[in-house]
Amino acid sequence: MLRRYGFAVAPEQISGFMQAVTLLGPRSMADIREAALATLAPPPDRRDEFEAHFQSHFYGNTSAVVEGEADEETRIKDDGGADNERIEAERSQEGGELSSALEQLSTRDFQRDDDRLTAFRRKLSSALPTRRSFRTVRTASRGKLDLRRSLREIVSADGDVPSPLLRRRQTVPRKLLLLIDVSGSMKLHTADYLKLAHAAVQGADRAEIFTFGTRLTRITSALRIRDRNQALARAAAQVDDWDGGTRMGPTLLAFLSVPRFSSFARGAAVVILSDALERGDHAELETAIRRLSARAFRLSLATPLAGDPRFRPATAALRAILPDLDDLIDGSSLTSLADFILSLARPAPAASTIWKRVS
């Protein structure tokens, strides 16, 4: 009921509410009400509306909810205009980008998606940015003298001076880190992002995948299963906050607070797949992005909103983090995302430079 009337209630809040009711007994309806206030956390400005819905659900008192129903209906009409089909779509989808069933059926080709991901997986390892490793390999020319091995050869040859042995530092691909937003506003893109993530883990030796919404979950081990359907089923069982709320700033800070996790970002190509629609104060998001940028080799934000030619980074959160991003690109399709990741080794102007020129 609360979700139907526009309250943001994450799955973990629902389970927390049920656990709180169990712990309290409950001895009275007052216990249930206090548990609901503590775990479902209605905004202070909507507390009266929350109380009205509570009275309606548990006591059958619907008189106080009539006004709330009218307000919700008006909000939908204002958002959707006079287009009845669009209004119906908004009612049936609680988040994410809206599109009709006809449009999806006419533009989606799963076989082509699979072919594209197969090509992406095959090319990924050689297309990632590289770095010089501290490990060395033997080389016949253009290397430094391997003094230890050369002396060993001299000793084994009874003092004869063989040709000097050379070594050079290895060149290895950089790590790829994908941070995938699984909140309600991204639910139309989550399936495609996970398919891409599975292809990345299969194609790169050092790829790491995390999901975030109201929680942070590492799903790399699940995506190492070769069969994609089994891998995605395992990942689905691990993630608890599908299609719920989003706390992008706090979850990214939680990622950085775990030393083992933050080490994945050091020197890596980091791609955040999210619309970056942070609710409330964006100070934590700005801090997290700044710290990620300092650790990463390249930090990119792929947002499906950029698929619209009219898109501009106009929100306060996007304006705040834009100077710390290396790329702000279109994340609305598998094609654009795969092509971008395969181009990470090629230099490009900073995101702030590109979007200032576009604006």
Automatic annotation (TrEMBL):
Pfam families in the record: VWA_CoxE
Region annotation (Disordered) ranges: 68-105
Basic and acidic residues bias spans: 73-94
Gene3D superfamilies: von Willebrand factor, type A domain (3.40.50.410)
Annotated InterPro entries: UCP010256, Uncharacterised_CoxE, vWFA_dom_sf
Origin: domain of life: Bacteria
PANTHER family named among the record's database cross-references: BLL5662 PROTEIN, BLL5662 PROTEIN-RELATED
Protein name: VWA domain-containing protein
